[in-house]
Amino acid sequence: MNPMDMDEARESQFQPAASVPAAAVPEDRRFQALGDLRFLPDETLCAILTYLSPHDIGRLSCVSSVMYIFCNEEPLWTTLCLKNVNRQLEYKGSWKRTTLHQLDLLTEYEKTPAKQLHFNGFYSLFLYRRLYRCYTTLDGFSFDNGNVDRKKDLSLQEFYDDYDGQKPVLISGLADTWPARNSWTFEQLLQNYGDLAFRLSQRSSRKVMMTFKDYVSYTQIQHDEDPLYVFDDKFGEVAPKLLKDYSVPHLFQEDFFDVLGRDERPPFRWLIIGPERSGASWHVDPALTSAWNTLLCGRKRWALYPPGKVPLGVTVHVNEDDGDVNIDTPSSLQWWLDFYPLLSDEDKPIECTQLPGETIFVPSGWWHCVLNLEASVAVTQNFVNSKNFEFVCLDMAPGYRHKGLCRAGILALDEGSLVDVKNDSSCEENHVRCSDFIRKEKRMKTHQPPESDNLENVEFVYDIKFLSRFLDQERDHYNSEWSSSNVIGQRNMRGWLQKLWVKRPELRGLIWKGACLALNAGRWHDRLREICAFNDFPLPTDEEKLPVGTGSNPVYLVAENVIKILVERGLEASLYALGTELQFYNLLDQVNSPLKDHIPVVLASGFLFLKDGSCQVIPWDGIGVPELNENFNMVPENHNEVDYPFGIWNKKQFEYHKVRLSSLESGNPEGCSTVWPYIVLKRCRGKIFADLRESLSWNDMLNLATFLGEQLRNLHTLPYPSFNVSNLLVSEQRTELPLGNGFLDDTAEKTSFSPELITYIKTLNKKKQDISSRLTKWGDPIPVTLIDKVGEYIPEDFEKFFNMFEDDKSVAKPYTWIHSDVMDDNIQMKPCNLTSCLGESTHDPSPVNNGCANDYNGSTKSNSWRPCHIIDFSDLSLGHPICDLIPVHVDVFRGDSRLLKQFLESYKLPIVGRKSAENSRFGRASYLTMCLCILHDENVVGAIFSLWKELRQAKSWEEVEEKVWGDLNNYTGFDD
Description:
The protein has 38 helices and 27 strands. The strands form 7 sheets. The protein has a 9-stranded mixed β-sheet with strand order 1-2-13-8-15-6-5-3-4. Helix 16 (389-396) runs parallel beside helix 20, helix 22 (570-591) packs antiparallel against helix 23 (648-660) and helix 36 packs across helix 38 (957-965). It is found in: Nucleus. It comes from Coffea arabica.
């Protein structure tokens, strides 16, 4: 099948929109060519086609003449190409040819003789307008100055008083001394960086890269409605010399994100290069950060609206579950051509044309849209400072009302949200006020604007006191689901606030306000004080009132104690976590394991709960069922038969039910949202490994690998409590327990597996059922091609992995205690001089404590550091010992095979047996390990592709397995 010659068709049809003739046509092809589909708008038909594969589009184009036209539209092939791009993009003159090149079909396509096809009797206003946008030029677009304030030689105090956090300003002179002012032209960039690949901006989750010389070639021949433009946040890594060509202007140097390392902080700087007609559609910058943008060549047209005033043509969607905000908006060119002319003078945006050398400042929360009037080059950075810090923290907080309100104003609120909300006279006058009642039509699909007169009594104020009133007070802000649109994750957010607390003590008043918004820090601090008072511990000082660490539970360092309040995944999960941890500590004492010298010492444990409006505390050592309020009804069926009713076996049953129901949601059972388990441990002085990694010597790292091998060997050889057969999970109904193609009861009958191992196999088989969707949800950097193949790679039945254990006595136990989270923030280090490190054993008889508990005030300067403790056993479980090796190698060792070898030399336990079947993947330790990585509850696979970037081009999971875990196949374990 040959495509229509679109270039010729466009040239023959192109003319200004105002002169489109209403010409008669001999016949209307639409009826016969589309059948019942003719009733759908052309826009809808084109949108539907984007969900088909290129092969299906080719087949569909053969159906009829009109479908042939739709299927050969360039914008359709643009979408198809960018959705399916699987390697570095090479533009081949048209998007259809580029797509076929991606599919390795271009050569075959070019062998087919071209034949021009012309069809009369069909006209589409939608396609015509799109074609017009593809070929229009902006030569005659107004270059007026606009109505944004223009300033030169603006002082820092003037900027702070008049503009920061208040309104945009266009500033000249800030880039006059930059080398980029002269060197950032298309010609010089092409000469210096033509072979380097940069990231492109486009409406797809795929990461699209193109060499700069190919991109320049594309810009010279393209006729796209919304041209691709370079929007690369990694340009400093791709071309480090570019960072030397500019510097952050003095007005914007306060940036609270600079306490984070380059790998920790969210994307914040971008190189922006685009042709005429390209640009950024309407948006509010991520996390309500502020931004500056300096233009080096070309001209840009800016339009801006204050916070809460949604531009005409833009629709805001807010997810009620996690607060994620999505925006549907026309391209910047389409908005200026189709929507801007509809605006009355009083409803038009603030505008300006930015010229080379000028810098525009965009305050927090402001809507803005940018259109390149000429080919342009620019650099931009987002930042957090004292003016927008609280807004950034507010935007991170779980919930949806406040996130929609910050962007869509009063239109985001329902009737109930407006109750008792009046003009807030306490708001400072220098904050932006915006009454958005000009256009009351629905622009929120999730929330309809209220239709009562309450709107007339409410004025939207972009003020933190006003906006924070719409936080969802019923949510546990520390443990609720984190919005996928947040610029950093929950753990990174906690780590960021803690680093600010330590490194910027003069800002602690402001940091505390932000922590109260994002983490409910004030509430947790009140609960902390109750725990301290009940146990006669010192009360927290002002310096100790912020949680430390990046874990999922509030952890505090108070004097010589570490206090952890368990909230992760809700009360039931927290209860089993504490019960199992206490059971484990008791077991260590019973067997006198050497591991007990390298874990925390428990000082107290119990529950904090609300009763009759006041906090109460009761102790609990894990034995028996705690006597809490009348709403507490979580009592295991066999609680009279075991000492630890919330210990490991009931925890495993709880975890299995979560997997079986595909429900890993957080949240407490009804009636139990006011109960919080807690544990207090002795604090040890020292540093967590995460804070020392960059300063450690190679010998320190080898000693760490040896230490981890020894302690995990001690952990994995511990006995675990006897399994109560009367409460086996396998006693459930047969129809509820599928295992591969059979059933668990069948497996139990045909094998001699222990009940414990049967339970584990069953859980793994359940986890694999939705693995493709989980990997897809995690997305980049996991290659889509491998996600498509994961079903072929993962075994149909995990029983096959464990057949070897029954007849091979050389293999290690397939089911042991596992820490589950031996990562760089759960390893405690202490300073030592060279002599003591070489001469002492790793045994440390001195009092220890939990060290989420990192002593931040200590100095990191030391001759050497040695590991002393493994901390945070709240994720303790039973499983295959390889589950502990995975985070050690990926997170602690960062994939260094030398450290893995050192670890194995001290670990000395075999992983797979010597009698494993030859040429069987089930006998490869690497295969088992890779499968467990894929099934891991955390995104271990994403971490692997972040570490081994070359594997993003891998063609198979076997290639990834060999690269990451291949060394395990040469390891057999060592006899004592």
